[in-house]
Amino acid sequence: MIKYCQINKFFDVTPVLHELQQFDDAFWKLHFQVKHYSGNWSALPLRSIGGDVNNTFIAPNEAPVYADTIFLQQCPSIQKVLSFFECELLAVRLLKLAAGTIIHEHKDADLCVEDGLVRFHIPIQTNNKVSFNLDGTLLKLDVGSCWYMNFTLPHALKNEGNDDRIHLVIDAFANEWVQQLFTTPQYLQIKESATPEKFDVAAQLEIIKNLRLQQTPIGHQLADDMEKALQQKLNIGPHSK
């Protein structure tokens, strides 16, 4: 199970910052998960359910249809960034973590590549007093970098700086292009798997089974990695397949 990785792609976000000047505070909507944070955490929807600029919800029904909002239509530089991602985009938002805001530790269900979904973060504006803790690992996310993180794991954030932190956050289906992205070293700078010891044996075997049922190259590779680690831990021979 991949914990996080940095995609070997940097974006020039200076034009994006210029585009954001057209949106004052009235355009930003407070994040709907109010129990998860203290302070001001807000979103500017670029793709939302039905293209609604007032809707920041992510998949509140079983078959949501996402569409570009008028905000995205006014942002050609962001459109250029999104063109890099050769996969079906779901929700796309700008998320702003105001100075002094804390996002308490929580988990997001079904948001990992192993379950067929990915969430990419591209920092547009940040400061050196922003901390991003993912399952015990403190990540430093530079402006213009691109990251995948497994948000089914516990994560928490703090902005103890004087400036707002703004990220472009992209949810997408993990299609073949995404799978190649995750398995091609030239596109990957950092890769870390979640520690197998965090799960009991039965849970690990269930994860391995589900990965193989996906019948995808990345699913088989991750299953092989987990199976090998489990065999070494238990000092047993290979499982029959």
From TrEMBL:
SUPFAM superfamilies, A to Z: Clavaminate synthase-like
InterPro entries per UniProt: Asp/Arg/Pro-Hydrxlase, IPNS-like_sf
Domain Aspartyl/asparaginy/proline hydroxylase: 39-172
Gene3D superfamilies, per the entry: B-lactam Antibiotic, Isopenicillin N Synthase, Chain
Superkingdom to which the source organism belongs: Bacteria
Name under which the protein is recorded: Aspartyl/asparaginyl beta-hydroxylase domain-containing protein
